[in-house]
Amino acid sequence: MQIKYWIIGLVALLSVSSCGKENAAKKDDVKAVPVLTIKEKDTLVSNQFVADIQAKKNIEIHSRMSGIMQHVYAHEGQFVKRGQLLFKISDAELQIDLLKANATLKQAQADVRIAEVEVSQLQSLFNKNFVAKNELDMMKAKLSAAQARRSYADAERKAVLQKVSFTNITAPFDGVIDVIPFKDGSLVENGSLLTTLSYLDQIYAYFSIPENLYFELQKNDKLNNSNKIELVLPNGAKYDFNGVLKTAEGEIDQATGSIRYKVEFPNADRLIKHGTSGKLVISDFQPKSIIIPQKATFSIQDKVYVFVVDATNKVRMKNITIANTLRDSYMLDSGLKAGDRIVLEGTQALRDGQTIRVKK
User: Fold this and answer.
1) 67: phi > 0 → left, psi -120 to 50 → alpha, else beta; which?
2) Are 228 and 269 contacting, i.e. CB atoms less than 8 angstroms apart?
3) I need a surface site. Which of 183, 228, 231, 289 has the fewest CB within 10 A?
């Protein structure tokens, strides 16, 4: 009898042990995965663009007269003021021409004065009927011819004076002098490039936006002066001042499919030179954004999904719409809300409707 009870107890014990092992095996089949609870947060979204930096004004200074460079008053890299004398081309021959022009003008002026006196005298005689009208008309014609010669002589003198002025090359605005290829005594041809002058107190950073991104930014009003615009210099350092967005072009370049903009930066210490390269970082403030790690997503054809975890720890596929791509995250346009839970890692090993355990 005791042996019977002992056998029954042993069978019951084996049954309990088998059920425990089966439940443990089922529990081990439920995957443990990390889960992320979605939260809203204010975010600064940044886009980077390659920039071509130019001085606000940059001009080439050319000679308008040929001759010998008499003196160079500026040096390379010098800051000069508007109207400051930069170069002097010899004007010795022009000074001789000017003396001739002055003499010719004086002769013409004397001829006009003589003709005026003669007209006055004939007019008086004509009024007393001592001379015929045709004599008076003849003298008036001579006066007109003398006046024309005077005007021509004056124009010739002004032309020589203008050529003399071309031998004095001055700065058209405040700026920094670039390379000067000519030295004292050099022969300068008409049209020779003497130097380049750059106004560096303000600079423009030009950049191009692809037309698809341009329309996207315009649609969401993300390309305006409320953006934070920073300049990253070639050494990787950020420039001390933020820029202001300016329109550069009014049409899309058909060859590149992009539109050009510029950003104005102050440059009072003239640290940044004309022709410098750099990157523009244009940031846009996005309040209450939904941002998820890229590793929490997976793609099927051309759509992006996540696994949403419900209250019973079952996962369901959910399609999401991406608004912006950040470094290793996505900013969402739709699909999730604050408080939703999604699978953070291991989505490849899951299937829709599967039950999981939340991995701490």
Assistant:
1) left
2) no
3) 183
Phi, psi at 82, each rounded to 5°: -60, 135
DSSP per-residue codes, 166-202: HTEEE-SSSEEE------TT-EE-TT-EEEEEEEEEE
Q: Which amino acid is at 124?
A: S
Q: pLDDT digit string (tens) for 198-240?
A: 999 999 999 988 887 777 777 666 666 557 899 999 999 999 9
Give the residue among 50, 34, 63 at the shortest CA–CA distance from 168: 63
Answer whether 343's CB lies under 8 Å from 307's CB: yes
User: Which H or E element spans position 51?
Assistant: strand 40-62
| Structure tokens given for 11 | 């069978």
DSSP 284-348: EEEEEEEEEEGGG-EEETTEEEEEEE-TTSBEEEEEEEEEEE-SSEEEEEES--TT-EEE-S-GG
Backbone angles phi, psi at 310, to 5 degrees: -90, -175
Q: How far is CA 202 from the centre of its chain?
A: 12
Tokens of 97: 């021409």
Q: Which of the pair, 30 or 246, is modelled with greater confidence? A: 246
Q: Which of 182, 159, 160 is nearest to 86 (CA)?
A: 182
The CA-based diameter of the chain, rounded to the nearest angstrom, is 181
Whole-number Å distance between alpha carbons of 175 and 291: 48
3-state secondary structure of 91: coil
H or E element that contains 207: strand 193-210
- Pair 274, 198: CB distance under 8 Å: yes
What type of residue sits at position 329? S
- The pairing of strands 356-359 and 31-37 is parallel
d(CA 343, CA 350): 10
**Phi and psi torsions of 18, nearest 5°:** -65, -40
Bridge-based pairing of strands 244-247 and 79-80 is unpaired
Token reading at 92: 């010795």
The pTM assigned to this predicted structure is 0.67
Residue 265 CA to residue 242 CA, distance in Å, equals 7
Q: Which helix (DSSP H) or strand (DSSP E) does residue 30 occupy?
A: none
Q: How far apart are CA 231 and CA 11, in angstroms?
A: 80
